[in-house]
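Example 3.
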Amino acid sequence: MTTLRLSLGRRMQPPLRATVGVSVVAWLVAWFAEAPFSDWLTFSVFGLDRGSQFGEAIAFFLLDVPKVLLLLVGIITVVTLIRGFFPPERVRSALAGRGRMTGTVGAASFGIVTPFCSCSAVPLFIGFVEAGIPLGVTFAFLISSPMVNEVALVLLWGLFGPGIALVYMAAGLTVSIIGGLVIGRLGMERYVEDYVWALQGKGPTLDAVQLTWEDRIRDAWSYTRDLVRRITPYLLVGIGIGALIHGYAPTDLVAAIGGRSNPLAVPIVVLIAIPLYSNAAGTIPIVQALLGKGMPLGTTLAFMMAITAISLPEFIILRRVIRWPLIAAFAATVTIGILFIGYLFNFLIV
Amino acid sequence: MKKIEVLGPGCANCKRLEANAREAVGMAGVEAEVVKVTDYGQIAAYGVMSTPGLVIDGKVVSYGRIPSAGDIALWLSE
């Protein structure tokens, strides 16, 4: 408990447990009431016809927006609480001094539970190098962190069931581990900016910040509010596109471009995804609509991974510590990995 | 006069932290200047790996999160 030594004019906060309890109940009520309510709204109140393209598109939109927002709020809060126990400082201590294989697998796995903010990519990279963590291990982390995002995982679980979520996680881990191992073997250390190597072994090593439960809950809630606010535009666009696909896209078109009969489906969707960047959550409505139209799982997975993992803004930020040849190697490795996953899952899941 | 440094390349989080820091200066009623540090070399020199970070008079007080203006005001008054 922080003791107030000045009069800060802070309102008396209601007891933490009561607030948390009420929030959980409110969420559950909203969650179970939502689908019947949207259905009623679209077809009874607005009087649209079931089965009409416009009606279906609107139903999809009205069903999806509150559902995804609710899921997001619930998931991000819980996930942020968990992530609070895995700050980068702790990951660095865990990875320092490990062998190449252990380090790479560990880094890829930690990437799942560590928050990733593009702006932190550079200090994080420097921090890992400073601790003597090999380049390949660092890259395994950089690949896995934005791509295998637990928010996306839980959303996938909630919308498609545990199978697909686990598949996505396994695929992401595989690409990260193999990507990390490959980059580690390329011996491209000379493409890291010199000032980064100069910092090795210097500078203080900070431990993870000590936080109380109240700090953690307040942080998680404030982060959730902020993130949902930032994601909502991506989400609305994603849901809008999903709704259009759901209501208007002829199944034949999706089958022609992205379907099983087109051997170039995977590279095409990856190419489409490269200039697109979205938070993983924003891709899910599109993924939902595409799967509904019969796009094979591998192709859809490749699309989703490519949107989140291959991000030009992130590459530009990384330029501050890495030169273009290494960035290109990074991008190429991730792309090839994603293409491989796409074809593999199309092959395995008939 | 206290020196408050906000470490970060200038994304939305860093701006929030800077705003909180400025508010905290008002709350605590101390004399302080708030400086943005965007150079990665300087940020690394403090050992900060997760931005945004907050430094008061050369001592790192926070990183990887955005403390509220109230928390920062408390640190300023210590």
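Helices of chain B lie at 12-28, 40-45, 69-77. The longest strand of chain B covers residues 2-7.
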